[in-house]
Write a structure and sequence with these properties.
This is DUF2304 family protein. The protein is mostly helical. It has three helices and no strands. Helix 1 runs antiparallel to helix 2. The radius of gyration is 12 Å and the shape is globular. The N and C termini lie far apart (about 25 Å).
Length: about 60
């Protein structure tokens, strides 16, 4: 289960990335994924549990030493 604080944190992070990307007017594939993730975290759709698990797994994989 994802807490509101965690969802809010991810929404803010992806929101800042989205604002910066829209200002640059050049969106690549990975940037479009960030924009999509912002929408999912902001909307709190039912699929958020699956996507949050994938995001957490990816971040843990990159930060694992």
């Amino acid at each position: 289960m994802i807490s509101e604080g965690t969802a809010f944190t991810f929404a803010v992070i992806f929101g800042i990335i989205t604002v910066l990307l829209v200002r640059s007017r050049d969106v690549r594939a990975w940037e479009a994924v960030c924009v999509g993730l912002f929408g999912v975290y902001l909307g709190q759709t039912p699929v958020i549990h699956t996507i949050h698990g994938l995001v957490t797994w990816t971040i843990t994989g990159f930060s694992h030493t």
